[in-house]
Amino acid sequence: MSLFARIFLLNTVVLCAATALLLFAPITVSTPVLSNEILVLVLGLIAVLVADAAVLRLGVAPLKRLRRTMTSVDLLRRKPRPVVEGPRDVAELITTFNDMLDRLEAARDFSAARALSVQEAERRRVAQELHDEVGQSLTAVLLGLKRVADQVPEPVRAELTAVSETTRTTLDEIRRIARSLRPGVLEELGLTSALKELVSEFDDHSDVTVRGRFDPDLPPLPDNVELVVYRVAQEAVTNAVRHSRAGEVTVSLAPTPDGIELRVRDAGRGMGRAEEGAGMTGMRERALLVGAALTVHSAGGTEVRLHVPLPAPDAATSDTAPDTASAGEAAR
């Protein structure tokens, strides 16, 4: 029964009961009105109002719960759908809202997958150009400086040697940036080796001590899932090194009963009331693409936890998220 029908029926019953009471009960209204007659009329009015309020409260309660859900919806955090309950029109409204959320999440997943695929392709293209163009040019500069240094007097040779060292340092930095943009070790040696190299890079090139603990008995994962785990770890460690003011960052990867779990933990100042930036949003988008759950705890430091469930056998080759192969083809 619809909300309108329930309220109308209640009012009809109450008014019919009041009419019958006036017609068949020995109750009359005098002129002027007597005090006991006023009491009866007031009690009847209160009864009608209480009955209406009770029915309205029961009927509107699902709408209140739906409103609270609507104000707290975040497409980057999957939450249980509102329970379909209440009168027919209220239940239809909740069902329509749930369908709308399903369509929005599907559209978000599709858009995020395309955007991240393009992003990976652009990373590969830039890394390739840095390696092939800039890297080779700097290598040629180094060789030229060495030839010139062998043919000039000693004072000039010392200056050329200093320039060569600066150029060599720049070349090493460019190669490091290219490796971070395109994790070739991830494609060649797998997720654990790629994370070990990531930890080593941050530990060597920052003032923060970065440690890694990786379980050797990890289950095999699809390429797109490994890429998501690697990128989340990369972004989380970058945020910790840049913003946490911590002396040490720990990266761990271990199996769980239904998948794997990545943790990036620091003992820094925490996030406080700061809003999540683009990096955190990107991590949540990547996690959603592979059905993973990303949680962030900021108490006594910050811990980013990514729980990745094991994919179904028939979904192991799914291309929902961007993989390195497709990204490479797009880059070329």
Distance between the termini: 61 Å
Shape descriptor reads: rod-shaped
Largest sheet, spatial ordering of strands: 1-2-3-5-4
- The CATH topology of the largest domain comes to Heat Shock Protein 90
Mean pLDDT: 77
Largest sheet: 5 strands, mixed
- List the uncertain runs: 315-332
Radius of gyration: 34 Å
Total discrete domains: 2
**Name of the CATH superfamily of the largest domain:** Histidine kinase-like ATPase, C-terminal domain
Helix content: 55-70%
Strand content: 5-15%
Number of strands: 5
How are helices and strands ordered from N to C?
A: HHHHHHEHEEHEEH
User: So, CATH architecture of the largest domain?
Assistant: 2-Layer Sandwich
Look at the structure and give the CATH class of the largest domain: Alpha Beta
Please report the number of helical segments. 9
Structural class: alpha+beta
Describe this structure in words.
The structure is a single chain. The protein is α+β, with helices and mostly antiparallel strands. It has two domains: 3-107, no CATH class; 108-331, Heat Shock Protein 90 (2-Layer Sandwich). The chain contains nine helices and five strands, in the order H-H-H-H-H-H-E-H-E-E-H-E-E-H. It has helices spanning 3-24, 35-71, 88-149, 154-181, 184-189, 191-205, 223-243, 278-289, 324-331, and strands at 209-214, 248-256, 259-266, 293-297, 302-309. Strands 1-2-3-5-4 form a five-stranded mixed sheet. Strand 4 (293-297) and strand 5 (302-309) form a beta hairpin. The two termini are 61 Å apart.
